[in-house]
C-alpha cells in the first residue's frame, strides 16, 4: 500500500467509524490542517489521540498506515509537486 502523505483525501471521501460528515465542507468534521505552507497543505485527524486512547485495536489507513485509494489524485498531485524530502519533516 502506498505511504500516507496526509493529503486529507480519505477523510473527504469516506468516514472511519469515528468520523462525522460535515455537509458544508464535504469532509469529516475531525479533519484538521496540520501544516499549511505556500507550497502544500497537510492534514490530520483532530481526535486521533482520543481514538487511540479509547480503542488501541482500531486501525485505519488514514492514520499514516498507507493510502488504500488507488485513484487518489490529491496524493498524486502532492507527490508530483514535492519530494519526500520536502514533506518528511511534516509527516512525523
Number of domains: 1
Q: What is the makeup of the main sheet?
A: 2 strands, antiparallel
Helicity, in percent?
25-40%
* Uncertain stretches of 5 or more adjacent residues: none
E-strand count: 4
Rg from alpha-carbon coordinates: 13 Å
What string, H for helix and E for strand, traces the elements in order?
Answer: HEEEEHHH
Distance between the termini: 18 Å
Backbone structural class: alpha+beta
> In order across it, which strands form the biggest sheet?
1-2
Number of helices: 4
Put the structure in a nutshell:
By secondary structure, this protein is of the alpha+beta class. The chain has four helices and four strands; from the N terminus they run αββββααα.
Describe the protein's topology.
Layout: H1 10-13, E1 21-22, E2 27-28, E3 31-36, E4 41-45, H2 48-54, H3 73-81, H4 84-91
Antiparallel strand pairs: 1-2, 3-4
Question: Can you offer a commentary on this structure?
Answer:
- With 92 residues, the protein is an alpha+beta fold.
- The protein has one domain.
- Helix content is 30%, strand content 16%.
- Strand 1 and strand 2 form a beta hairpin.
- The protein is globular, with a radius of gyration of 13 Å.
- The two termini are 18 Å apart.
Amino acid at each position: 500500500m502506498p505511504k500516507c502523505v496526509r493529503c486529507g483525501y480519505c477523510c473527504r471521501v469516506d468516514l472511519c467509524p469515528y468520523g462525522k460528515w460535515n455537509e458544508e465542507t464535504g469532509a469529516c468534521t475531525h479533519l484538521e490542517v496540520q501544516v499549511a505552507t505556500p507550497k502544500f497543505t497537510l492534514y490530520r485527524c483532530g481526535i486521533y489521540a482520543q481514538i487511540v486512547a479509547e480503542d488501541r485495536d482500531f486501525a485505519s489507513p488514514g492514520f499514516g498506515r498507507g493510502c488504500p485509494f488507488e485513484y487518489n489524485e490529491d496524493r498524486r498531485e502532492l507527490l508530483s509537486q514535492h519530494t519526500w524530502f520536502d514533506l518528511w519533516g511534516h509527516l512525523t
